[in-house]
Design brief:
alpha/beta; seven-stranded parallel β-sheet; 9 helices; 7 strands; binds nicotinamide-adenine-dinucleotide
């Protein structure tokens, strides 16, 4: 076993200015990859890249925008010469009951998660097909497996990402491009800090491991899927939820 799992490879992570995306970028970098951190928050992406150090680039990108995502892939190849790993991680929530959720809340969540993941999958796989290898990782959620009240938009999008992952995996397998998904449970980030504390505590109490997860614990699953340790896995969905909703 080589010591550095991703030596000489390039990984792109969307939504990497903070939270899970930043933790994924940090861990892939620790294992030898050059990393491109992309985020709607361009200054945040650049600051995050600076905090990682050499072999880290921060780029502004809106994953809902076709030319922005294509630009991200083109810029990555131009600056690092390759693209081996693409993590579709950018995300938003607009939680509300059906009585209160607006069409704008629904459309935004669909655009960021579904169109965004699809644009990343399409643009990254075009480069990887030609190279004859690659690993694409899509961030779903246990909310897409079980459905959460107040998240009819988000649960639908995250379930849709599972279908997209499996369809993409079947299309790309013969080109040695793997597509897998991760379903995190309750992870401590800005996204969950926005939850009412009593809802967070209630969800945490229902987890068999009796605690929320840390972003670095999701990153471990991403490193596994990014590396050759998972070379015979495609179309898989890894649950990282402390036993929740198993
Ligand atoms: P976060 O809010 O900390 O980070 C999300 C990042 O995505 C932010 O930096 C934000 O600027 C960026 N972003 C939003 N819209 C964007 C766009 N259009 N283009 C580019 N970047 C955009 O959230 P997080 O908790 O780190 O979540 C990361 C991913 O993990 C998301 O897909 C989320 O749905 C998923 N997830 C999180 C949890 C959790 O408990 N935190 C659980 C399951 C799944």
């Amino acid at each position: 076993m080589t010591e550095l799992l991703l030596e000489g490879r390039t990984a792109v992570v969307t939504g990497a200015a903070g939270g899970i995306g930043l933790a994924v970028a940090q861990l892939l970098h620790e294992h030898g990859a050059a990393v491109v951190l992309a985020d709607l928050n361009e200054a945040g992406a650049q600051a995050a890249a600076t905090s990682i150090g050499d072999r880290a680039i921060g780029i502004g990108c809106d994953v809902t925008d076709e030319s922005s995502v294509q630009g991200l892939v083109d810029e990555t190849v131009r600056r690092t010469g390759r693209l081996d790993v693409f993590v579709n991680n950018a995300g938003v929530t607009r939680d509300a009951s059906l009585r209160k959720m607006t069409v704008a809340d629904f459309d935004l969540v669909m655009a960021v998660h579904l169109r965004g993941t699809w644009l990343g999958l399409r643009a990254a796989s075009a480069v990887m097909r030609d190279a004859g290898s690659g690993s694409i990782i899509n961030m779903s959620s246990l909310s897409g497996k079980s459905g959460n009240p107040g998240q009819t938009n988000y649960s639908a999008a995250k379930a849709g990402i599972v279908g997209m992952t499996k369809a993409g995996a079947k299309e790309l397998a013969h080109k040695n491009v793997r597509v897998n998904a991760i379903q995190p449970g309750l992870i401590r980030t800005a996204m969950t800090e926005a939850m009412p504390p009593e809802v967070f505590a209630e969800r945490e109490a229902a987890i068999p491991m009796k605690r929320a997860g840390e972003a670095a614990e999701v990153a471990g699953a991403a490193l596994f899927l990014a590396s050759d340790l998972s070379s015979y896995m495609t179309g898989a969905v890894l649950e990282v939820g402390g036993g929740r909703l198993m």
